[in-house]
Amino acid sequence: MKLKLNESGNVIVRNDKPVYETNNGNEIEFDAESTTNTIQNLTRERDGLKATNKTMAQGAEKFKDLDLEQITKDRTIVKNLDDKKLIDAGEVDKVKAELSDVFNTEKRKLEDMIGSKDAKINDLMIGSLFAQSNYLKENVILPSDMCRDSFGKNFKLEDVGGKLTVVGYVGENKIYSQKNSGELAGFEESIETIVGGYEMKDRILKSSNNGGSGSGSGGSNNKQKTNGNLGGNRQERAAAIASRFPDLSN
After folding, report:
1. pLDDT tens digits, residue range 94-139?
2. Burial class, 229, CB count within 10 angstroms (exposed 0-12 / middle 13-18 / buried 19+)
3. Using an 8 Å Cβ cutoff, are 5 and 21 in contact?
């Protein structure tokens, strides 16, 4: 997906929204406000599920001190009640096991729901940052969706100071800002650092197509070849990129 530009190279805006062109040629208007509201709603739902999970865990604490020996002693009080028998000490373990199974089942459901919400929030926030990145638009020849396929693994959604934040990584190390000492780098600074450290960066940066003896008429032929290799649908473009930059497919 990439921004749709007019003949002057300016972004086309429709209904006060930038227009993007998908890989199959469809046009969509990117609604930043709607995307932000969706992320906020999913975050609230996730936080609610976490609170419910915590409440259930606290409730289960009430049963952890269940005294089986005392229950066995109490059997002597009720063993002659026959039809009014309240509890059989031999059933205590069964009752506890059933309660534990119910609790663990509900806990797994909540954890799965929380994980699903986190995945949706992660997809929306990171995908939006790749789609809107000025650095990628101005410096990288790959479309934003292919940049995300290649470099998206370097970003994680984390809780930083009580706020969901997209954090950039190089390997296992967080990327810290060179502009604001001691602070985590923002997305733009992070993606610039990641691309700058990519060993094949000269083959994906736009500047690599503009200099050297290949400029001029020869440069025009090279540009035509690049457009041809990156044209077509998503599968065709992915195959072309994989053949030219095999390390991007790893």
Report:
1. 777 777 788 888 888 887 787 777 777 777 888 888 988 999 999 9
2. middle
3. no
